[in-house]
Design goal:
By secondary structure, this protein is α+β, with helices and mostly antiparallel strands. The chain contains 16 helices and 26 strands. The strands form 7 sheets. Strands 6-5-4-3-8-7 form a 6-stranded antiparallel beta sheet, with helices on one face. The chain has a 6-stranded antiparallel beta sheet with strand order 12-11-10-9-16-15, with helices on one face. A 6-stranded antiparallel beta sheet has the order 20-19-18-17-22-21.
Length: about 675
């Protein structure tokens, strides 16, 4: 009975095996059958008995961390070895051999090798890349294997394609890497000197060129400091000379060739021609100007002519004067001579270095360790401003037009405040016009009762005055003053300065306005004007609720008396009083008597007392407005008639038929007393 096909029950090694191919040992080369390889594995790729695998790539020891492939772990990591090669020379006159130096690079990512020969001047041999990057096989009999990292060490011989290279040293990275993988490094060796290059160097030292040559190597400085420029802000004070002034300059020092360039900062309206450069880029001598030099006198080399005599086949030569006798030495400015506060000589002009940019500060801090970069003010003090005076107003046209004719050769019209006009012009239901109801202050009996509407337009600060038409008054109403800006009184007419005009801030209820010699008392305003002034209380302080409450708080000592007055006026105890009652003003009887005496009222004491008693209430208080209106014989020609006051009620009736602008009918006096004096209801 056969055992079931389960793991552990079968001894057949082919169970689970999928590959049964045979390795190809025979092949064709140039159409000739031959044995290709003897080291190929057996059936299915398994090793034959006694056969060992040869590693294709370098095997590195296992370390801690992730097992990344070599082409990832050793990407861009290269081992560098210094080697030389003894090359036999066919021409025995130049020596038996040549020493050629090489650089061997081993790339760890794929075990490729590259061999380069550094170029030597006048070596007489082609140099550069000797072996391109590739995997190099071992010398016979192991030519089927390739070089790995374990085949390299210091002071050993290594063979590449039949040429023996002697490795005598390597760089620091290579030494550290070989030590980490367990390679014991040999002591470094020395590369022998090439006999041909030694002979050639000795020959060159003894030879003198027919044309003298002295090299000045400035390429390193150029490559290191190209496009790196130091910038200083300078000042040339030439104010001591005639028509001289302070000139602001910018100095550029080019680190690539130690040249200096100076530019001038031209202020606006300086009166000087704009030049591209104040000093063209060149080396700047410290002690210039040195004077006029002959052509060829200032040179880097001194060349002497050698006279060959009067022979027919004479030979003339040139000799470089190594002692440099008669050479004109010039000392030029270097970067070490430039710092903030230094004064340099720019061809006879003393230029003060006042400041520098951030790159210059970093350069000096890194190279010279300078930390103090306190700048020196180079700006000239401002010139005294000359006040421009204009001739007085001539009387023709407006003051603004006359002023514009004095500013330029071609008179231009006066520019209005267009922004203010667009913001304050009327649009929709917003008129941006303040309207006040006023009366004329005059001693003429015929003009006392005249009423006017004063309109102030916020868009251009103009004023118009209109008189409502009243039938059978004997006065033609209508336009009293067309729309125009009104000057403040008391100003000189023919003067150089512009006149001041009436502003919106000067208009409020109770104010007196002088319009071209006519005095108007502002009695009332429409609803839009009142709302506008309360909204812009910073412009109209007389409409500020905070200011009114502040004035009331100053009378805190009379808070109890004020509360009693409101309580007495509130007969029904509704905590509300009528608006007209709230507006009434009362004074003690003795104060009214003192006022009448001070104004020398032509009444005896008995008659005055009798009149005052008719206006007194139970607390000896008198409404002074009603009292003085009753004394006005023009308003009250008959004693028995009730006085007619210019109160808000009449103003509302005379306001061109408009509805009453006062929406308030009652005043909550308890809330007012609480906000002002903090009194609570008892």
């Amino acid at each position: 009975m056969a055992l079931p096909l389960l793991p552990g029950n079968s001894f057949n090694r082919n169970v689970g095996k999928e590959k049964f191919h045979k390795s190809q040992h025979w092949g064709f080369c140039n159409n000739v059958g031959m044995l290709v390889s003897e080291d190929k594995p057996g059936i299915g790729g398994e090793l034959l008995l006694g056969q060992k695998t040869k590693p294709k790539y370098s095997a590195f020891p296992k370390g801690m961390g992730s097992d990344a492939p070599s082409w990832v772990a050793f990407d861009k990591q290269v081992l560098s070895f210094d080697a030389y090669l003894e090359d036999e020379v066919p021409d025995k006159s130049q020596g038996n051999y040549r020493i050629r130096r090489y650089k061997i690079y081993f790339y760890l990512e794929d075990d490729t090798i590259q061999v380069n020969e550094p170029e030597l001047k006048n070596s007489g041999m082609p140099q550069g890349t000797s072996i391109r990057r590739q995997r190099i096989s071992l010398p016979p009999p192991d030519e089927d294997q390739f070089y790995t990292v374990h085949h390299f060490n210091i002071n050993i011989d290594i063979i590449f394609y039949g040429r023996t290279f002697k490795i005598y040293d390597c760089d620091t990275f290579t030494k550290n890497f070989l030590k980490k993988i367990g390679v014991k490094l040999n002591p470094p060796g020395q590369c022998p000197e090439d006999p041909y290059m030694k002979i050639r160097r000795e020959t060159l030292d003894c030879m003198k060129p027919l044309r003298p040559y002295e090299s000045f190597d400035t390429l390193k400085q150029f490559l290191e400091y190209d496009r790196k420029v130091l910038r200083f802000f300078c000042l040339w004070d030439d104010s001591a000379t005639l028509f001289g002034d302070r000139r602001e300059l910018i100095l550029h020092y080019f680190l690539s060739d130690d040249t200096i360039e100076v530019k001038e900062v031209m202020p606006h309206n300086s009166g000087r021609d704009a030049m591209s450069l104040f000093l063209q880029r060149r080396k700047l001598p410290k002690y210039g100007p040195p004077g006029v030099c002959q052509p060829g006198q200032v040179t880097d080399r001194t060349v002497l002519n050698i006279y060959g005599g009067l022979k027919e086949n004479r030979v003339d030569g040139y000799l470089l004067d190594k002692y440099k006798l008669g050479k004109l030495d010039q000392e030029f400015y270097k970067d070490s001579d430039l710092f903030i506060g230094a004064t340099i000589n720019v061809w006879g002009r003393k230029v003060l270095l006042c400041d520098c940019d951030e790159f210059t500060k970093t350069y000096y801090k890194t190279k010279y360790g300078i930390e103090n970069f306190t700048s020196i003010p180079c700006k000239a003090p401002p010139l005294p401003k000359i006040e421009r005076k204009f001739p007085p107003y001539t009387g023709f046209g407006s003051e603004e037009d006359s002023l514009r004719s004095c500013i330029g050769l071609v008179p231009t019209p006066h520019q209005r405040d267009f922004k203010k006009f667009m913001e304050k012009d009327s649009y929709g239901n917003i008129s941006n016009t303040l309207r006040f109801f006023a009366k004329l202050i005059t001693h003429k009996c015929a003009d006392v009762d005249r009423m006017f509407v004063i309109s102030y337009f916020l868009s251009d600060d103009t004023i118009s005055v209109f008189e409502p038409i009243e039938r059978n008054s004997g006065i033609t109403g209508g336009k009293f003053l067309k729309r125009i800006r009104v000057k403040k009184p008391g100003q000189e007419v023919f003067k150089s300065e512009l006149s001041e005009y009436i502003k919106a801030e000067e208009l409020y209820i109770g104010a007196t306005v002088n319009v071209n010699g006519y005095l108007f008392l502002l009695l009332n305003a429409d609803e839009y004007t009142l709302n506008y002034m309360e909204t812009n209380s910073d412009m109209f302080p007389m409409s500020s609720i905070e200011l009114i409450l502040q004035k009331l708080k100053e009378e805190e000592s009379k808070s109890r008396e004020i509360k009693q007055v409101f309580t007495a006026a509130d007969c029904k105890h509704t905590k509300m009083v009528d608006y007209n009652t709230f507006r009434k003003k009362v004074l003690p009887s003795k104060d009214i008597r003192r006022l009448c005496k001070s104004f020398r009222l032509p009444l005896s004491d008995d008659l005055l007392g009798s009149i005052l008693s008719g206006f007194e209430d139970s607390e000896k208080q008198i409404n002074y407005e009603s009292f003085f209106c009753a004394l006005n014989w023009r308003i009250n020609p008959m004693p028995e008639l009730e006085a007619t006051l210019y109160t808000k009620e009449r103003c509302e009736d005379e306001w061109l038929g408009m509805p009453s602008p006062i929406p308030v009918k009652y005043i909550n006096y308890m809330r007012l007393l609480k906000d002002v004096f903090g009194l609570e209801e008892e």
